[in-house]
Amino acid sequence: KQKINIDEDDIFKFLAIVLSLIASFRWKVGGDWETYLITFERSKLSLINFDWSLVFELINYIFSSLQTGVYGVNLFVSSIFFLALYRFGKLLNFNLVLILLISFSLVYFNGIMGYVRQTLSLVFLIFSIEFLIKDKRYSSLFMFSLAIFTHIASIALFPIYFYLLIKNLKLIFVIMLIILFSSILGITRLEVAYNEFVFKGMISLGAFFRSIPLLICSLIYLIYRKKYFLNTKIFRFITDYLCFLSIFLIILILLSPAFSAIADRLSFYMVIFQIIVIGQIFSKLIKYTNKNYLHYLTFTSISYFSLTFSWLIFGDYSVYWLDYNFLYLR
Fold it and tell me: What's the confidence (pLDDT) of residue 2?
């Protein structure tokens, strides 16, 4: 019998294309659907709300000019996410199928089919960290700038860039100008976010469940940090900071329900940390040659899936995703 070899890259690309099409050509599916639809429909230069999201508004304007409908924006965001994920996985020699399955649970529903703008910001952060690891600091800074001007919450990763670029006063000055300008531009949105997430104490019902895999990854990282995560100074500081921020956000979610919503939004960016931890464990500790490799891979994938499907079944807001409508079938 002839043995059929299926390349890992081909599996990733095939699944990425299918998932992108499903997410991109949906209609009235996902959280904040109406908000994003309104954003697209008012996409004229005279109506662009720059203090909401400079980059996201411009992208909506471009696709509005191309007359693609809101589907063009969704296709762009979902496609560029999987591209960033692919490049990041190849750079660190991770199992591409595994990190795609993890991202499916952590980002696909909540981000790509939910918080589209924050997903785009996450994409720019992934590119930015990729360039940091490659020591391409100007490219990294540019991507970080795009992330901030897409979603101001990405400023939570600012300490990484401040520490790594502290000896380069020119770059530090540029970073401070970017943060100052983005803060001035988004002062109205920051006030609204403060009132909604902090002053009123908005509670996220799904924050606790989403914090479970993040807590497990933090514990794994602390246990194996010295053995498997000390590649370079840059990589070490990135992972140390992401771990510190993850633990801080988990504490907020568990001990202060009033801050659970804002902590949940910020922990969305910790998808990067989870991908690094799980990817590194399967790259360095549980290798392809391990006879139980497939068992560990299956267990990890099912564990992430179980949290997602539990939310889809029992979550109060999952109805916005379960009633799926495809563009051409509605």
Answer: 43
